[in-house]
Amino acid sequence: MVKKLLVFAFIFCFCTPIYAETIKTDVLVIGDSPSGVSAAIQSARSKIKTMLIMPGAWMANMPTGKNYSITTNRNLPTGLWGEFREKVIDFYKNTTGYEAAANVTLKFEAATGATILKGIADTVKNLTIKLNAPFTTIKKDGTGWEVSIAINGETNIIKAKVVIDATQSGEAVTKAGATLPPVYDYTAIDGTEMYRTSIATSDILPKDYIPMRDVVVKNADNLLVTEKILITEGSIQYLPLQMALGQGAGAMAAYIAFFKTTTKNLKVRIIQQELLDFKSYLLPFADVKRDDRYVRAVQQIGATGMLKGVNKGRELLFLPDAIVATDEVKPVLTEIYSRAFLWFNKVKPGDKFTVGNTLSLISEMTLSEPQTLQVALKSDWKAKYGFNNDFDMDSPVTRLEFAVLINKYLNPFARTVDLAGNIIN
Q: Which of 163, 65, 149 is nearest to 114 (CA)?
């Protein structure tokens, strides 16, 4: 009898089927890259259930004992990169000889940088991190994905609405049988309006920005890619760009999950608004700081193309005190507002756009009474808006004054933009 029971127990233990644990999440990020960590943090901060899986230990590609010195993006503390930068400086500020000014070259030990990133991630709600969890398979599951991971020799299944491939090799996209997007061409100046869809900026690139569509896998819904589209050449100087790109992809994934949609239906401006909420730059205007009261207005007007900025060395400058040229703003104003064409033909502003021109245009577009608008703005010019110049209808309007007023009264950034950067009226 005892022998029969032992045989039964043996058969039960070794013949009972083993069911893999199934985990459900909204966004799954695969990879131990800086862009992967940033993507996961942003997705979770956007209040979306997010999981980050790494094949080994935390940020194993930032080895102990290695020292880094980052000279790029010193004047572009965009989003998560800016947060990370502040925490690194705060960590070392009492170290003898360490430069702790806001825009100095950032120096840190690799292990310290990895620990600081982990500290940021650990404070984020809605984020689950699984280490030593290499993924083995990925396949479609409706509009979402089913991913198998190995943990302690056991297989777990993760079902996700959106997957972000943040591996350096694009392994997830390849295993999914999809086609990797082309490597981002930093040098191409194609004359299109792709800057209007920017989700990541850097002063290391000649073209300054990465457009949204470049991270979308074209032949597989709800699959995004980050690291594989960059040519980082193993250089730490790309860390700010990697983090910015990851944050942008995280916001895109969160949008897809929240609205229960697909990568075919991305809404550019909604995603960019989310990035602006988290202090990311859409365009790398180095002379308008992240804590400036009008940084959002400048970013939004810049993203419409009305005021594009001027390249100086490796930086793009907004030049807030420079004068607005009529020829610069007219093409975009007439593109967005059909009645603006009639206004230009009627008013015929000179080469330099004036304060009076700006108020007249606002009055025409909003159908507001001109004198009432003038009285209100004269009262608010310095008291409310804090403009440096005196209110004078005949004075040329500065780029900052124009950006603030047009953004407030006309809000051209709200116009729908497709993934090719075309404004949809």
A: 65
DSSP state of 318: -
Tokens of 255: 């949008």
Q: 217-235: buried (b, 16+ CB within 10 Å) or exposed (e) per residue? A: beebbbbbbbbbbbebeee
Kindly report the pTM of this predicted structure: 0.93
Sign of the alpha-carbon torsion through 411, 416, 421, 422: negative
Do the beta carbons of residue 265 and residue 216 sit within 8 Å? Answer: no
Structure tokens given for 250: 């995280």
Give the angle 356-358-361 at the CA atoms, nearest 5°.
105
Q: Return the half-sphere exposure (C-beta side, CA atoms, 13 A cut-off) of residue 294.
A: 21
Query: What pLDDT tens digit does each residue of the chain (425 aa) get?
Result: 545 544 444 444 444 444 568 999 999 999 999 999 999 999 999 999 999 999 999 998 776 678 999 999 999 999 999 999 999 999 999 999 899 888 899 999 999 999 999 999 999 999 999 999 999 999 999 999 999 999 988 999 999 999 999 999 999 999 999 999 998 887 765 667 899 999 999 998 777 899 999 999 999 999 999 999 998 777 899 999 999 999 999 999 999 999 999 999 999 999 999 999 999 999 999 999 989 999 999 999 999 999 998 988 878 999 999 999 999 999 999 999 999 999 999 999 999 999 999 999 999 999 999 999 999 999 999 999 999 999 999 999 999 999 999 999 999 999 999 999 999 97
Give the residue carrying structure tokens 């419409």. 304
Residue 405, CA distances (Å) to 99, 360, 381, 414 in order: 39, 12, 10, 15
Using CA atoms, how far apart are residues 417 and 224, in angstroms rounded to an integer? 20
